[in-house]
Design brief:
A: mainly alpha, Arc Repressor Mutant, subunit A, 2 strands, B: about 170 residues, Alpha-D-Glucose-1,6-Bisphosphate, Chain A, domain 4, about 40% strand
Chain lengths: ~130, ~170
């Protein structure tokens, strides 16, 4: 139960971090390789503090990590939370498709039942 | 049998995700299956291995619903909401929140049932609280009804970087 709670909080943080277009673009840049704050700020026409703020959100969500050693402290993409978010959505889609297929069978059953009720009614009318 | 069994997902407007599915049955039956708890619990169960131990429905405006699912390996999932509008057998509007929320804010789900030639098209339109949330839900995996692997997600992110640059 505790584990599930943690997973759910992790997912919240992941989705909240992904909800911003700049942060998604930062992740896309990092998918191509590690980069420093300066390198990340360059294509966005954004100040370094503004980028740093986005990086903190991504770091808290576990989507990136930052090296403590090197002077330029390069950022690195962390794949695990993204994979978890993806798994959740895949389950959601599977859920509906499987449920709708099952609803098809239930409706066939309901139609058959209606038909037999009608037949019985007609028989009763005739007799 | 055209379109029967095929699920489509679309994103008209700014805040919506719309799912449609055609059933080979009159709409009164589809509506019943969608609103009566004893029937819901027989189909809204998800993939094999899942069960639906909780299915509570108080079908009136202001009434609540609560669905709870469980997988064979102990995973749990639940959703709940309040009915806003009920027009049998045409239309149901209900708020939607997951017990373990996976998107910010509350969504509103509008389900309509349209019958033609003995078949019923069920349309579920989920409206999220902002365009941002909707885009997040779609771009992280539901678009086109195609689940995206991590590789695919990277491609999407990469194309966004390109459009951010241009």
């Amino acid at each position: 139960m505790v584990k599930q709670q943690l997973n759910s909080q992790q997912l919240d943080a992941t989705f909240a971090a992904l909800a911003d277009p700049t942060r998604r673009a930062i992740l896309a840049r990092l998918a191509a390789g590690d980069a420093s704050v300066n390198e990340l700020a360059e294509p966005f026409d954004m100040s370094q503090p503004a980028i740093s703020k986005h990086l903190r959100v991504l770091e808290r969500a576990g989507l990136i990590s930052r090296s403590r050693e090197a002077q330029r402290r390069p950022c690195r993409l962390e794949a695990k939370p993204l994979a978890a978010a993806d798994e959740w959505l895949e389950r959601y889609r599977e859920f509906w498709e499987a449920s709708f297929d099952r609803l098809d069978s239930l409706l066939e059953e309901m139609k058959a039942q209606k038909k037999s009720e009608k037949l019985q009614k007609n028989r009763r009318k005739k007799s | 049998m055209r379109n029967v069994g095929k699920m489509t997902i679309d994103t008209p407007g700014d805040r919506e995700v719309v799912m449609t599915r055609v059933f080979d049955a009159p709409r009164q039956l589809v509506y019943d299956a969608y609103t009566k708890p004893e029937l819901i619990a027989r189909w809204l169960i998800g993939p094999p291995g899942w069960t639906m131990p909780v299915c509570e429905v108080d079908l009136k405006v202001g009434g609540t619903y609560h669905y709870g699912w469980q997988s064979a390996d102990g995973k749990k999932m639940g959703s709940h909401g309040i009915y806003q509008e009920i027009v049998p057998p045409e239309r149901v509007v209900v708020t939607e929140s997951f017990d373990d929320p996976w998107y910010p804010g509350e969504a509103v789900a509008t389900t309509t049932f349209v019958e033609a030639g003995g078949r019923t098209t069920m349309t579920m339109s989920v409206q999220y609280d902002s365009k941002q949330t909707r885009d997040m839900v779609v771009k992280t995996g539901m678009e086109g009804g195609v689940a995206c692997s991590f590789d695919h997600l990277e491609q999407i992110l990469a194309s966004q970087l390109q459009s951010a640059r241009s």
